[in-house]
Each structure stands twice: as structure tokens, then as C-alpha cells.
Design goal:
The protein is of the alpha+beta class. 16% of the residues lie in helices and 28% in strands. The chain has a single domain, classed as Jelly Rolls (Sandwich), CATH 2.60.120.10. It contains seven helices and 22 strands. The strands form six sheets. Strands 1-19-16-21-14-13 form a six-stranded antiparallel sheet. The N and C termini lie far apart (53 Å).
């Protein structure tokens, strides 16, 4: 006899499970884990390798600026969505991932335009593609930037964007950790009550304070996000060239340097890391894979990458992504000049959780994406 709260499936005394057993589990919002695939596991990301050509996106960005007014939206951004994510494409707040838990989009500012001040829990990065006269005010610190410059926008800090140029638009890539923060149900977004901020510091104050490679201010009470908000292209590229003179680089990444938090020596933010790498003239890297997702933007030159067996030819301002645990390699197709790739990734999260793993291809071929982490 069963009670009012039990069924025959709950009290059966045989050693087998029939359909009623699994039906009862489903009724109780429970599942049998032993029915899931057994044996060795390895990352199987839903994201797929992709490349977005700037020459295709730029005309659409210019067109959007004709009918989306700056005072109607703080975020005139075209989101780059990964088709491998299927139903996840319809994410709330328009923050579908480009790969893994990373977001990327293209933002355009018309000449003389400014956008509404706002803040959010997600951390954001900007890498300028084209245009001069661009500015952003971050927590009252006005940053002025141009092509190749890199900007950090910390979590929950008021910020707004604009351009003083009256001749040409400004376009940059936005990179954020919105998908991660959304997954953790920890995201917030808010418009500034006064529409715009008042900036009370000298222009590029963070660069003048924290940008010296030889001396630095007292950082004994440093925050985890970089106090340096602006990383100019000229300084970053020169540092990369200087480093290339004294190193052979990595066989898997060429000459790579990480944008750092000058207060801690670590990544620019706790959730997003950024790097700039050089592929010397005609250089071809070896094949490897690692946990964690990466978004690349071509800062200089032309070449190609082979990702999970697919070849993607790239040139300046193109964007492409490498999913977690996908075999990949890069090549500079120019025999006369170097190529540079800007990238951002979730590496800081993986390092903090002890989940970063990397593996090289023994024969430098393109193996199938199988196997387990070392």
C-alpha cells in the first residue's frame, strides 16, 4: 500500500528501473546522472569559430547611425553573435556571447556626437578601430583616444562616450563580460540621473598618474581593476617592438605582451584580460589549445588563423574568436611587415579558479578536437 505522497514507482522492490521510475524523477524535477555519457570528458563548447569582416560590418554601422539617435540610446552597438549558441541568441539585454562568456560589439559615434552616461555591473573594454577625436569620461576622468588605443571601463563606474571630430565618425570594438555576469544573475544597468557627468580631472589623468614604466604611485591600497584607464597604441606597439628585439617569443603566440594593471602587475580586470601580440614577417605559429575563450581584433597587418580545422583569412579591424579547447594557430601572410593582434579573454577567471589548462599538438597538425585536459 502506498501513501498519498508516494507512488508505485517509489516503493517498487525489484532491481530494475522501468519507464515509470524515470517519469517519476521528471515529475520531481530530478534526473538520473548515470544516464549521462560516462568515461573521459573534455570541454565541448557550444560556440563555434567565427570571423567577422570589418569591410562587411562598417557600412551597416554607418547606416545605423542615420536612424538610431545618440539621445535615444546609450548603446548604439551592433552585437556580434555566435551562431553555435542556438537558442541563447535571444538573450536578455541584447548581450548574446561572441564566444564562451565573452561579449563583443561595434559601436559608432557620429561626428560631434555624445552618448548618455550610464553604468553597469559588467566590466567593459574598448579598442578603437577608426576615427580621431574620440573621448570617454570614466568616473569623472576624461580619456581621449584614437585608432589602436585600448580603454578599460571598470564595473559599476559611470561612463559616457563621444567625439569632438566634426569630420568623420569613430568606430570601436566593445568587449565585456556581460554573458558571465548574466549567468551569475549579478548584472545591473542604470542611466545617469543627470544624463551627463561632470569631469573634474585633467585629460588622460590616469595615464599621467599610472602610465610610467619606471616609476609608479603608491599602490599599497590598490583595487583589483586597473587604475590606468587608457593604453595608447603608440606606447603599446613600441613596447611590443622593443620586446621583440630581445626575445624569440612563444612558438604558439609569437611575441605576446599582456596589458597590465600597474598597481598589481596582474590583468587589467578580475574577469577580463587583454593582450597585444606580434607575428613577425612571415611568421607561422604552432598548433595548440587551451581552456578559456578568446576574442581577437586585427590591429595591424594581414594573415590567417586555423581554428578547429577551419581557415580564416583576416586583415586590419576584422574580429574572430577561438572557443575554449579548440586547436588553433596563426600566421602572418606578409613577408615584408609584422602583424599585430589585440585580444581579450576570460583567462583571469580561469586562473583564479585553477581551471586553466593548455596542450600543444605533438606533430603540429590539426588534430580533431577530442581528448581530455592535461
Amino acid at each position: 500500500m502506498t501513501t498519498a505522497n508516494t507512488t508505485a514507482a517509489d516503493t517498487a522492490d525489484d532491481d530494475t528501473a522501468d519507464d515509470s521510475f524515470y517519469a517519476r524523477l521528471e515529475e520531481l524535477h530530478t534526473e538520473a546522472r548515470w544516464t549521462v555519457e560516462q568515461g573521459a570528458w573534455h570541454p565541448r563548447p557550444a560556440s563555434v569559430p567565427m570571423l567577422w569582416r570589418y569591410q562587411d560590418l562598417r557600412p551597416l554601422a554607418l547606416r545605423s547611425a542615420r536612424f538610431v539617435r545618440s539621445d535615444d540610446s546609450a548603446l548604439r552597438v551592433m552585437t556580434l553573435r555566435n551562431p553555435g549558441r542556438g537558442e541563447e541568441l535571444a538573450t536578455p539585454h541584447g548581450s548574446a556571447p561572441i564566444v564562451g562568456h565573452l561579449y563583443s560589439g561595434l559601436q559608432l559615434l557620429n561626428p560631434g556626437e555624445s552618448m548618455t552616461a550610464h553604468r553597469h555591473a559588467a566590466t567593459a573594454l574598448r579598442f578603437i578601430m577608426e576615427g580621431t577625436g574620440a573621448w570617454t569620461v570614466i568616473g569623472g576622468d576624461r580619456v581621449e583616444a584614437g585608432p589602436g588605443d585600448f580603454i578599460v571601463t571598470p564595473s559599476q563606474v559611470w561612463h559616457e562616450h563621444g567625439t569632438d571630430s566634426l569630420e568623420a565618425p569613430v568606430i570601436w570594438q566593445d568587449g565585456t563580460d556581460d554573458p558571465l555576469v548574466n549567468t551569475l544573475d549579478a548584472n545591473f544597468y542604470q542611466l545617469h540621473p543627470d544624463v551627463h557627468q561632470v569631469h573634474g580631472k585633467p585629460v588622460n589623468a590616469s595615464l599621467h598618474t599610472h602610465g610610467s614604466a619606471l616609476l609608479r604611485p603608491d599602490h599599497r591600497r590598490a583595487q583589483p581593476t586597473s587604475p590606468l584607464l587608457y593604453y595608447p597604441w603608440d606606447m603599446a606597439y613600441q613596447a611590443l617592438r622593443d620586446y621583440a628585439e630581445v626575445t624569440d617569443g612563444s612558438p604558439y603566440d609569437g611575441v605576446l605582451m599582456e596589458y597590465q594593471n600597474p598597481a598589481t602587475g596582474g590583468s587589467v580586470t578580475p574577469t577580463l584580460g587583454a593582450a597585444l601580440q606580434m607575428l613577425r614577417r612571415g611568421e607561422r605559429t604552432r598548433t595548440h589549445r587551451h581552456t578559456g575563450s578568446v576574442v581577437y581584433q586585427v590591429a595591424k597587418g594581414r594573415g590567417h588563423s586555423v581554428i578547429a580545422g577551419q581557415r580564416f583569412d583576416w586583415r586590419r579591424n576584422d574580429i574572430f574568436c577561438v572557443p575554449s579547447w579548440a586547436w588553433h594557430r596563426h600566421a602572418n601572410d606578409d613577408a615584408d611587415d609584422d602583424a599585430c593582434l589585440f585580444s581579450f579573454s576570460d583567462r583571469p577567471v580561469l586562473d583564479a579558479l585553477g581551471l586553466y589548462a593548455e596542450e600543444a599538438s605533438a606533430d603540429d597538425a590539426d588534430p580533431e578536437t577530442t581528448g581530455s585536459a592535461p
